[in-house]
Amino acid sequence: MTKISTLMTSAFSLAVAAATPAAAAPAGAVKNIVLVRGAFVDGSGWKAVADILAADGYSVSIVQPPETSLDDDIDATNRVLDQQDGPAILVGHSYGGAVITGAGNNAHVKALVYVAAFQPDVGESLASLGAKMPPAGTGVAPSGGFLLIDRAKFRADFAADLSPAITDLMARSQVPLALKAAGAPATAPAWKVKPSYAIVATQDRSINPDLERFMYKRSGSITTEIQSSHAVYMSQPKKVASVIEQAATAQR
C-alpha cells in the first residue's frame, strides 16, 4: 500500500469513527452524572472517568468548587445540578464527599457515589473525622488560612500509583482548601435519605482506608474496594466508572 493510500485509509477510519454515534445509556438508567472533585486538585483529573461514561451514553458534568467554604462548594454543585435535564447521579472524591453529602439533597439527585471520600454524619467535619482515624500521609499543612500538600510529599500521599510527571504537575497546580471548609460540620446528610455507593482505596494515605470502611458501613453504602492510592479515579478509571454506572442503572 502506498503512503497516500495509507493516509487515505487512516483518514477514512477517523471519519467513520467520528460519524459513529455514541452508545446509549441502558434503558431506564439515570443518564446524567455530576462529578465533584476533592481538595487540592482540579476537575481535569476526572477526564478518564468522564470519557468512559460519555462513551457509554451518559451525560457528564464536572463541578469546579471554589474551596472557599463548604457552603460555597455546595452552592457551586447545586448550580450544576440545577442545569440537569432530569435525574442525576452525584459523585464526590475526597473532600467532594462532604460536598455531595450536602448537595445530594437537591431534587435532581437520585443516588450518591463516594470515591475514596469523606461521608460525614450530622456535626462531623473533615477535621473531626480525620482526627478519629488519622491517615498515613503527613504532607497536609496550613498556609494563610488554607490547606496545601507539601510538594515533596504530594506523590506519596496523594497519588503514588501515577507517574511522577503527572503528580509533579498536580503538586505545582494545587487548589488550596480553606480551613473553614475543612472544619465545617455536616447538617443534613443526603446519604440518610438516598441510596449511596462507595469506593475504598485500599492504599489511601490521604484518608485512612479504615475510616472509609467505617463511614460506608455506617451509612449502608454499597461498597467496592479497589487497590489504589487516594487518586483512584485517575489510576483506576474503568473500575470507578463501573461503580458509577452501577448506581445509575440501579435507579431505573
Q: Proportion of β residues?
A: 15-25%
Q: How many angstroms does the end-to-end distance come to?
A: 50 Å
- What is the helix content? 40-55%
Which radius of gyration do the C-alpha atoms yield?
Answer: 19 Å
- Mean pLDDT score: 92
The total count of helices amounts to 11
Note the main sheet: 6 strands, parallel
- Secondary-structure content class: alpha/beta
Number of strands: 9
The stretches of 5 or more residues where confidence is low (pLDDT under 50) are 1-21
What is the succession of H and E elements? HEHEHEHEHEEHHEHEHEHH
Q: Largest beta sheet: what is the strand line-up?
A: 2-1-3-4-8-9
Characterization of this structure:
By secondary structure, the protein is an alpha/beta fold. Helices cover 41% and strands 17% of the residues. The chain has eleven helices and nine strands. It has helices spanning 3-19, 47-55, 70-81, 96-103, 126-132, 151-158, 164-172, 179-182, 209-219, 232-235, 237-250, and strands at 32-36, 59-63, 88-93, 109-115, 140-143, 146-149, 177-178, 196-201, 222-226. The strands form two sheets. The chain has a six-stranded parallel beta sheet with strand order 2-1-3-4-8-9, with helices on both faces. A three-stranded antiparallel beta sheet has the order 5-6-7. Helix 2 crosses helix 11 (237-250). The chain is globular and about 45 Å long. Mean pLDDT is 92; it is low at 1-21.
